[in-house]
Amino acid sequence: MRMSQAFMPTLRENPADAEIPSHQLMVRAGLIRKVAPGIYNLLPFGLRAVRKVEAIVREEMDRKGGQECLMPLLLPAEPWIQTGRWGDYGDEMFRLKDRHQRQFCLAPTHEEVITQIARDDVTSYRQLPQLLYHIGNKYRDEIRPRFGVMRGREFIMKDLYSFDVDPEGLAVSYDKMYDAYARIFTRCGLEFRVVEADPGAIGGSGTHEFTVLAEHGESEIVYCDACGFAANVEKAEAVAPEASKEQELPMGKVATPGVHTIQELVGCLGVPVEKTAKILFYWAVYHDGREEMVAAMVLGHRELNEIKMKNLTGAMHVTMAPAEDVTRVTGAPPGSAGPVGLQNARVMVDREIAVTRNMVTGANDDGYHLTGVNFSRDFSGEVSDLRYVREGDICPRCRQVLRGGRGIEVGQLFKLWTKYSESLGCLFTDESGQQHPMVMGCYGIGITRTVAAVIEQCHDENGIMWPVSVAPYHATVVCVNSADEVQASLASSVYEELGRLGVEAVLDDREERAGVKFKDADLLGFPFRINVGKKAPQGVVEVVERRSGQVWEHGATEAAQYVAQRVKEALSQG
Ligand code: ATP
Ligand code: MG
Fold first, then answer.
1. Of 295, 306, 416, 505, which residue is least crowded by CB atoms under 10 Å?
2. Quick one: 410 exposed, middle or buried, by C-beta within 10 A (0-12, 13-18, 19+)?
């Protein structure tokens, strides 16, 4: 393609609403343009990168026996009501009505649809396993759409669903996808970790996330360099604490005027923070519509993991209780609330709370705290792992110290078991004629997010540094002075030679200064740039590799052959 005719609207400045490099660069390089928050146009260069990722994903899905189909994005409510997710999805689901007032949604995911496909057309164990996938848009009304296509409200996903006769079959399908995902993200040139994760709204149990390591990633992970353990902090289990041998002291009440935070409490009483306990109040709404106040406790220096807590409650929604509700239930403002004598709340305590002796807690009396508080003797509650695991904590697998980091979740594998096949009646008949629900798994990859993740990992201050595998074009031929006929004609022939050799190239034949062309080439991130300049009369050109900045001089034909060879090598690594 000739740049003089290309639709390639590059910008010199970062857009004001773009906070992270991939978002800034996707806008500046003219890959995307915003339509509304979380909704983007993919412009030609951006779409080419998306198509590259899609092609890699398709190849790897097909290699594992996946078969592609295409499901609609406009979906009727009924199956979602049947699985309970019409309610569970809450505000994240875009809902609409047709002219007959029938309810629909824009697909946030496709378990309901695919399960119906299998239910209607797969009846016998002989037809299983099946691996069906599709690549298409998903719609989620995210609370915080941000970072460009990284967290969009409309985005492209590949989702594959596996149907098996039994858990052993599911394990085989799951392993295939695990392997395919590792190949996909490696081929995309990404550095990633496979982390244990929380299943979230999809449900089921047993799940891994493929997380690309990136400073600006939204996922927080902990990982162990010693044994390879990695987990999302939402999920990471805290090592069970040991029982304390300390003697239980009698309980006492002390005045703590004006103290409402743990820090103030530590300052006021001079107690170690590990001996303080904090209590947080939530409203839990259960599937049967019942509402209940939950009081969750962790030690003063810990953070309550709301996801763990919510999962343990079994509630549909859990939201922080307003201060006035806390005061009504406990008789004191939130900073003075405590577990002793607490009524009308479901008390859930972290395992550390249950084994720490002589804690200081709120007294349910404004301006007072209790000392010498002990679980079991002075209050009770459900004991479980409720706290966040952080860097510096102990690895649950090998007891070494965990490291912390941030990452971008680009893909996730879930074991769904029979959650959807049971609620939607997706059954098969076994050898003896008995019917069973199919055992399912689902496996998603954020295609547009993966493109953003590649840029997040592969860029410098001048622009994108595409890996060859996902680059919109492999190379650009820059005619340094387009007014010079010798240069123009040599540039043109190098460009044509590249095309003959199977290299996807552009020819920068614009009447711009050389500096502008070089800047754009760096911003757009072509893996290779061939400069046709002063030495054109001798038939000599320069090859510049974007990533390393290395420069080689070659004869024009050799330059094209050299780039073609390098591109071929890079692509064959898959
Ligand atoms: P997240 O925790 O980031 O919201 P999720 O767990 O909701 O992700 P899944 O339902 O597992 O995501 O979707 C599969 C993949 O789709 C994710 O791994 C991610 O790559 C991508 N994805 C999910 N939500 C978005 C979004 N809002 N914008 C872009 N990609 C997304
Ligand atoms: Mg989500």
1. 306
2. buried
Contacts of 504 (CB under 8 A, 6+ apart): 471, 472, 473, 474, 475
Per-residue pLDDT of 295-339, as tens digits, reads 999 999 999 999 999 999 999 899 999 999 999 999 988 889 999
Is residue 293 within 8 Å of 329, Cβ to Cβ?
yes
**Quick one: which of 394, 338, 348 has its CA closest to 369?**
338
Q: Tell me what the mean pLDDT of segment 157-175 comes to.
A: 97
From CA 212, how far away is CA 219, in angstroms rounded? 9
Q: Each residue of 109-134: pLDDT tens digit?
A: 999 999 999 999 999 999 999 999 99
pTM of the model: 0.85
Q: Are 309 and 388 in contact (CB under 8 A)?
A: no
Give the integer Cα–Cα distance in Å for 197 and 199. Answer: 6
Angle separating helix axes 447-457 and 21-28, nearest 10 degrees: 100
Q: How far apart are CA 521 and CA 557, in angstroms?
A: 21
Question: Residue 464 — φ and ψ, nearest 5°?
Answer: -80, 150
Counting DSSP H helices and E strands in the chain, the numbers are 15, 31
What whole-number distance in Å separates Cα of residue 241 and Cα of residue 220?
Answer: 23
Query: What confidence tier does 200 reach under pLDDT thresholds 50, 70, 90?
Result: low
User: How does strand 103-106 pair with strand 74-76?
Assistant: antiparallel
* Ligand 1 cavity residues, CB under 6 Å: 109, 140, 142, 151-152, 155, 157, 200, 409-412, 444, 446, 448-449
Q: What contacts 548, CB < 8 A, 6 or more positions away?
A: none
CB-side exposure of 30: number of CA atoms within 13 Å? 15
Rounded to whole angstroms, the maximal C-alpha distance in the chain is 95
pLDDT band at 235 (very low <50, low <70, confident <90, very high): confident
Cα(160) to centroid(ligand 1), Å: 14
Ligand 2 centroid to residue 202 C-alpha, Å: 10
Strand 94-97 with 74-76, pairing? unpaired
Q: What is the 412 CA–ligand 1 centroid distance (Å)?
A: 8
Determine which residue's CA is closest to atom 2 belonging to ligand 1: 409
The candidate with the shortest Cα–Cα distance to 260, out of 282, 276, 239, 283, is: 276
Look at strands 219-223 and 291-299 and give their pairing: unpaired
CB atoms within 10 A of CB 554: 18
Give strand ranges (E) for 197-246: 207-213, 219-223, 230-232
Structure tokens at 396: 């649950």
Residue 179 CA to residue 175 CA, distance in Å, equals 6
Strands 252-255 and 368-373: antiparallel
Task: Indicate if the alpha-carbon torsion angle 126, 128, 129, 134 is positive or negative.
Answer: positive
Distance 494 CA to ligand 1 centre (A): 42
Burial of 26 (0-12, 13-18, 19+ CB in 10 A): buried
| Phi, psi of 355, deg, nearest 5 | -115, -5
Phi-psi region of 294 (alpha: psi -120 to 50; beta: other; left: phi over 0): beta
Q: Given pLDDT bands bounded at 50, 70 and 90, which one contains residue 438?
A: very high
- Alpha-carbon gap, residue 137 to 61, rounded angstroms: 18
Which residues have CB under 8 Å from 292's CB, separation 6+? 283, 284, 286, 315, 345, 346
